[in-house]
Each structure stands twice: as structure tokens, then as C-alpha cells.
Amino acid sequence: MAEVLVFVDHVDGAVRKPTLELLTLARRVGEPVALAVGAGAAGTAGVLAEHGAVRVLTVDAPEFAEYLVVPKVDALQAAYEAVSPVAVLVPSSAEGKEVAARLAVRIGSGVITDAVDLEAGEGGLVATQSAFAASFTTRSRVSRGTPVITVKPNSAPVEAAVAAGAVEALEVSFSAQATGTRVTARTPRESTGRPELTEAAIVVSGGRGVNGAENFHLIETLADALGAAVGASRAAVDAGWYPHSSQVGQTGKSVSPQLYIASGISGAIQHRAGMQTSKTIVAINKDAEAPIFDLVDYGVVGDLFQVVPQLTEEVNARKG
Ligand SMILES: Cc1cc2nc3c(=O)[nH]c(=O)nc-3n(C[C@H](O)[C@H](O)[C@H](O)COP(=O)(O)OP(=O)(O)OC[C@H]3O[C@@H](n4cnc5c(N)ncnc54)[C@H](O)[C@@H]3O)c2cc1C
Q1: For the chain, what are the domain ranges?
Q2: Per residue in 278-300, pLDDT tens?
Q3: 209 lines ligand 1 (CB under 6 A)
Q4: Distance CA 277, CA 92 (A)
């Protein structure tokens, strides 16, 4: 059966959820072969095997930690040459997209970024993308070379599918460019204990209607009850109520969770651009005419200062 190469995103051996989603998609088209690079790479094999990886190629070297993306591109190219896959799948992070694009240039292939679905079609793998602020859904196929495709988080379910997961050490010789840009320092972001915004299955966002940084705890409490990430509109970010790293929208992050709850957000086109591919959208807004209600699956016309605490209480009661 044809093999599909999956580039693993992991932190010290802990595989991040978007990679497991890639394995689900890869199994639709062939047998997944995973490539894990860097510190802890060998530790990824167990979980990758549980989710369908028939082979796990691993490589660690100081270059992965000391330099920017090129060593990873070198490793992915070495894996590509060793496996001859029918497709290469990469998580759609900023780094993933750079790695994918550089690989595609090197191997003379077409690249598709930010796919939200993949299927085997006539003439090859067909990727679905959500374009122009999700106003259009496009289906595309790479017409030259082996498709290199980056896939957005939350585009597929994580499915258990036990496979051999045979671990193989990958030989990589680094190119001259690999050591061109050295990492001089790393500062870990302060952890909120909440899931990463772009990967979260549930996002609870607050906008201008939250009316002050001191009220964002309402949004956070609901998010924590649901195990969700917290997002914010640009109005809330520009007012200094929440950090820019949490902004959802055209000039913020794009999210596509299973559930998006917008509180006190009007639904401007630039905000929609970052969230309208969410599977289920709920809005709480006191203005029944707010444009966000054109988009929602469920809308609550009401004051968020009453609705959000009640919702949190109800969620907590059902959990208990
Ligand atoms: C180039 C460009 C890029 C942009 N990029 C982004 C982006 O990335 N992300 C983004 O979000 N915006 C972006 N914007 C800004 C965007 O146009 C809107 O101004 C912004 O999204 C509005 O944020 P908001 O919905 O929180 O505020 P508003 O539009 O002011 O809406 C606040 C809403 O809260 C409701 N409300 C008020 N009080 C309550 C209450 N007590 N209970 C319930 N509801 C209440 C109101 O009815 C209203 O609908 C961009 C704009 C431009 C020009």
C-alpha cells in the first residue's frame, strides 16, 4: 500500500494533537509513516503507533535545537527520499508551512497550505481549503510532483488505530544552509494552563461587550469549565483587555474548533475571517440585530453579564 509521510509536531516527545489528526487523514489515503525530529523524537513512537503509524522515522541532532527550520527541512527531505511517499502531510503551524514550502521547492512539487480536509480523488489527493475569510470552499489537487499539504488543526478527528510503529533511525546530512540562522535565546511563554488557541476543540471569546479587562474573568471561567481556550476580538485587544496572542480574526489567529462561543462580539467580517469555519458557533449578544447572529448555530439575545455566569454554572453542574 502507498505510504504517506507525516511530519510530527511534538514537544520533547509529547505529540501534539494536530499530528494525530494528520494520521487520521493519512490513513484515508495510505499507510502513515511518521517522521519525528529533535529531542525526545524516539519517545513519540508509542502514541504514533496507537494512531496508525506503520513506521516511525526518528532523528535527533544538536542542529534541530540550535538552528531555525532548515535542519528540519533537511530531515524531511531525507525521509521523503527514503520513503518515496504518495503525499507529505505537515501540521499548518507557521513553522510547518515554512518547512512544507521549502520541501516542495526542493523536490519540485506543488504545495497546498491550510487544508481543512483531504480525500483520495480521481487523479490524486484532493485537498479542501476554506478561502477568502471562509467565503469560498475550494478543492484543489497538486498537479506536479508529490503533493505536500499542510492541514489546519481540528480538521479531522483523532482516531485510535493500532499499527506496527516500527522505529527506524533516519540518517540526515545537513545542508550548508542548515546552520545559516542560529537560535540565540528562547523564552518560554507563561503558561495559562489552557489549550493552545489554534488547537483547542472549544474556544470562548470575548469582545467589546465584556467592557473591561477586569471582566474577562467571566470569559475565562466559562472557558475553564469547558476546558476551552480564550479568544478575544480586536476591539478587546486594542483596548488592552487581553493579549494580542489571543486575538481571533483577519489580523489575529484563525481558529476552527468544534465549538466557538462569542460573547459581546458584533461579528465584523474581520472577526469572522478567523472563526467562521468553527463547527458549531454560539453567540451571546444583547443586540438581536448584531451581524454575528447571521452566522450562528445557536444565539442567545441577552446581557453577557447574566448569561455567561449562568452558562458556566450549568456546565459545571452537568459535569458534577
Ligand atoms: C484591517 C482590519 C483588520 C481587522 N482585524 C480584526 C481581527 O483580526 N479580529 C477582530 O476581531 N477584529 C478585527 N478588526 C476590527 C473589526 O472590524 C471590528 O472592529 C471588531 O471585530 C469589533 O470587535 P467587537 O465585536 O468586540 O466590538 P463591537 O463591534 O463594538 O461589538 C461589541 C458587541 O458587544 C455587544 N454587547 C455590548 N455589551 C454587551 C453585553 N453586556 N452583553 C452582550 N453583548 C453586549 C454589542 O451589542 C456589540 O454587538 C479589523 C479591522 C480592520 C480594518
Answers
A1: 3-179, 197-319
A2: 999 999 999 999 999 999 999 99
A3: yes
A4: 15
